[in-house]
Amino acid sequence: LFLSGPTVAKRAGVPVSAIWGSEKSEVRGDLTIGQMRKIADAMDCELVYAIRPKGARRLSAVIWRQIADEIAT
User: What is the value of pTM for the model shown?
Assistant: First the structure.
C-alpha cells in the first residue's frame, strides 16, 4: 500500500520502533499473528491466514475456485 513505517505506526498507535521491530521479527520468522493483525488493522486491511498442503495448487487458485463456487450457488 506504499505506507511508510511512521504512517503505519501512527495508525496503530505504536512507536515507529515497534513497526521496525515487526519487520525484523518477520525476517527471523517469529512475527506473531497478533502483531500481523494489528499492522493489518492499522493499514485498513484484512489479515488472511492460510495453511495449504505442499504441492497443492497455488493459494490464489484455491481462493478463486471457492469464490466461483459461492457465486454459482
Answer: 0.62
